[in-house]
């Protein structure tokens, strides 16, 4: 069935498989994401993604094809979202060893906000002697918030002021309704323009609005409504990088470290010498023979075998 789908609707994917440009898993990601499009739109989107997918891992291909689908069919994306929103639910599934899974199927902006709320509580209320893992602390914080109770390890201080930080990135032209380019919800990925506009203009939410140049996708303005705003420079670099800057890593910049490419104090604390790295790749940079140089946000990694890999700042409006 998949072979027929690739042949009739996404011939570019079939050709990429035959020539070895794509493996089967990444090809399936593309065909699955274009399933709801008509044949012409599916072929156009698949051709675009295949053209830009070289060197991308499966997560990067998934984000690329989701954005392309939103760009190709913004009205359909809104309609499908409204249909899916009516199916929101909370599901309890018993598991072994006295455990259970509680799964919430929610609109993306609500799911991200809930997760960030719980994550902030787990991070900011940790006692010095707390030996629980990050996952354990998040699970305990989630239960304590919903049941209205506290324990010394998670909620040792008042949480009344804590608010999650959620990014929504939208082109300036989309914000003023001149077009319908997809936005990006931090921690989730591409979202339809209508929802990016709604989130960005919400006066009651705890959102950080990131406005991009509609031509080259670069960040041109950022505003915030947060409980405890970070330093402007920290804010800007994380928004610029979007994810960990190690090749292929998709860990959110909001959960990582800010690293001086040239160690301080020899290297200055300026945007051109800072980058977001997840903890694992931060340690890899400092404790292995991987080497990193930076030129105004463009990172060049050199592996222990001498291979070079370039990573670029997040383009919020890819071609």
Note down, in words, how this protein is organized.
The structure is a single chain. This protein is of the alpha+beta class. Helix content is 40%, strand content 18%. The protein has 12 helices and 12 strands. The protein has helices spanning 2-8, 11-19, 24-33, 39-52, 58-72, 74-85, 108-124, 134-147, 172-175, 193-200, 232-241, 279-287; strands spanning 89-94, 100-105, 166-171, 183-185, 189-191, 207-212, 219-224, 257-260, 274-277, 291-295, 298-302, 308-311. The strands form 4 sheets. It has a 5-stranded mixed sheet with strand order 5-4-3-6-7, with helices on both faces. It has a 3-stranded antiparallel sheet with strand order 10-11-12, with no helix packed on it. Strands 1-2 form a two-stranded antiparallel sheet. A hairpin with a 6-residue loop joins strand 6 (207-212) and strand 7 (219-224). Helix 1 packs across helix 2 (11-19) and helix 3 (24-33) runs parallel beside helix 5. The longest helix is centred in the middle third of the chain and has 17 residues, at 108-124. The model is unreliable at 152-163 and 224-230 (pLDDT under 50).
């Amino acid at each position: 069935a998949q072979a027929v789908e690739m042949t009739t609707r996404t011939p570019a994917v079939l050709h990429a498989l035959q020539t070895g440009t794509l493996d089967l898993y990444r090809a399936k990601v593309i065909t699955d994401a274009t399933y709801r499009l008509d044949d012409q739109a599916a072929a156009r989107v698949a051709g675009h993604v295949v053209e830009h997918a070289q060197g991308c891992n499966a997560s990067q291909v998934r984000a690329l094809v989701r954005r392309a689908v939103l760009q190709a069919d913004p009205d359909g994306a809104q309609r499908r979202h409204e249909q899916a929103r009516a199916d929101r639910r909370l599901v309890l599934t018993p598991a072994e060893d006295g455990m259970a899974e509680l799964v919430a199927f929610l609109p993306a902006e609500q799911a991200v906000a809930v997760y960030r709320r719980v994550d902030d509580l787990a991070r900011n209320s940790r006692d010095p002697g707390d030996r629980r893992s990050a996952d354990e602390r998040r699970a305990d914080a989630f239960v304590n918030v919903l049941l209205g109770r506290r324990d010394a390890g998670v909620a040792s201080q008042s949480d009344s002021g804590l608010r999650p930080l959620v990014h929504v990135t939208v082109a300036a032209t989309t914000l003023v309704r001149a077009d319908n380019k997809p936005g990006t919800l931090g921690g989730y990925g591409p979202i339809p323009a209508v929802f990016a506009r709604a989130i960005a203009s919400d006066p009651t939410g705890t959102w950080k609005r990131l406005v991009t140049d509609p031509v080259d996708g670069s960040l041109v303005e950022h505003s915030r409504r947060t409980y405890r705003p970070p330093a402007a420079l920290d804010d800007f670099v994380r928004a610029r990088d979007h994810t960990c800057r190690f090749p292929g890593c998709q860990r959110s910049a909001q959960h990582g470290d800010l690293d001086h490419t040239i160690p301080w104090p020899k290297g200055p604390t300026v945007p051109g010498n800072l980058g977001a790295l997840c903890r694992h790749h931060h340690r890899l940079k400092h404790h292995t023979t991987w080497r990193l140089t930076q030129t105004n946000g463009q990172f060049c990694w050199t592996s222990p075998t001498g291979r070079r890999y370039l990573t670029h700042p997040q383009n919020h409006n890819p071609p």
